[in-house]
Amino acid sequence: MRQVIVGPSNSGKSENAERLLLGLARTKIGYIATLPYLHHTAARINRHKARRGAQWITFEMVDSAEECLRLIEDAIRRCQYLLLDGLSILVWRISVIHGELDFSCANRFLDRLDWLLKSSDNNWIIVDCDMPYADLGDQDPFNVLMRAYQHKLICQCC
Fold first, then answer.
1. Is the pTM higher than 0.70?
2. Listed range (23-27, 45-49, 63-67, 149-153) with the worst mean pLDDT
3. What separation in angstroms does the CA of 23 have from each of 29, 55, 64, 81, 88?
4. Which CATH superfamily is domain 2-157 in?
5. 42-51 vs 13-24: helix axis angle to the nearest 10?
6. Using the 8-state DSSP alphabet, how is residue 121 labeled?
7. Domain ranges of the chain
8. Are 146 and 135 in contact (CB under 8 A)?
9. In whole angstroms, what is the distance from residue 124 CA to residue 149 CA?
10. How far apart are CA 60 and CA 153, in angstroms?
């Protein structure tokens, strides 16, 4: 199973994905957390953690593409069911270097993630915002990149 859930920020996408996986999984579920734990994100992260029980194993992403890929590979090995919550946040975190967005880094990461998704037999749900960085505008190169990748994932699921 591969599903992509895309919608507005704070619209219940993550909670719906969690419920769906809980209904399917009889084993541990991997939660690939992408939002950095900062002062302004702490309440949201704590709400998400509070509603997940012992069945979930959290894999917290970092700002290094290679380390994130290693953690995702670990999640694939340890959990048959996986939720990647906030793909655009993750790509932004690993692609901004010294305040500038490095598109070659973003594309390399997405290519490697695509390979991992295609080569695993795990059950995946990927959650993302429909307009990752709305304040940048719909023609912003990052938003265009992420919408194209979301579309690719959705087409692969069909």
1. yes
2. 45-49
3. 11, 12, 33, 11, 26
4. P-loop containing nucleotide triphosphate hydrolases (3.40.50.300)
5. 20
6. -
7. 2-157
8. no
9. 16
10. 22
